[in-house]
Amino acid sequence: MAERPKTDGTAPDSRGATEGRGADIAASRKPVAKRARSRSGTVIWQLCILVALIAGMKLLNATSGNLVMPSPGAVFWRSVEMWSDRTMPRALGESFTVLGLGFVLAATTGILIGILLGGFPFLGRVLDPFVNAVNATPSAAFIPLIIVWFGLYTEAKVILVWLAAVFPILINTTAGIANANKDLIEMAQSFGAPRRTLFWQVMVPDALPSILSGLRIGAAICIVGTVIAELTMAQSGLGGLMIKAGNRFQMDRYFAVVLVMMALGSLITIALRLAERQFGRWRVDLRDGG
Description:
Helix content is 81%, strand content 0%. It has two domains: 49 residues; 211 residues, MetI-like fold (Orthogonal Bundle), CATH 1.10.3720.10. The termini are far apart. The protein has eleven helices and no strands. The radius of gyration is 28 Å and the shape is flat. α3 packs across α10. Its main location: membrane.
């Protein structure tokens, strides 16, 4: 009598299914692990660059003195002092008010005008030379005119920040609307979508990544515009602190303000980049079969 083959109690089909699921899980974990390694490597390199910059400051301070480059320790303790006596928070609040108002105004007008120029090609062609002409003119060239019209205080600074930041937002929005996915537009038209629905539910959402990219660029320019406004008009905020420290050759104080500006710009850019990733995930690209 032939012996029965020994089994472990698992049918061949179920064993194959289990192995298949295990392979799928392992394959799905590989991209996650790869992204984690990439993020870790990025952070390590960033820390190395930061250490190198601090070491360079220390070396330059040791060889050339405090007037050329303050020591990292002096900048740190000066920063602590300025935050403790409320000098830095007060200046940061003044600058953030100008920056925030200017950015909101630039984002609102830039997106609305960009949607119009991108959605109505004839209007875009008519106004394109004028948009490019004003965009090519440095914002500082309009400072005397802004001072005459709006004075030297908050209103004039907000207008200067708006003028500096509105065109990157407007141009990116126009390009995003004008280059909206033609396959999606034709699909919506084939289902009888009216012009208004086509515009607001197909073209504008498809242009959202371009709009968010323009907002990110505009936010960075807003910081530059805020500093220029505070340097050339009534000196206040972070720009006012920076120019006063520079005039008195207080380089530790000067660098403390510069570090706050850099941190502010980085935080705003990171926040907008996260928003760009979040809202851009769903974008359908028919060329990839998505």
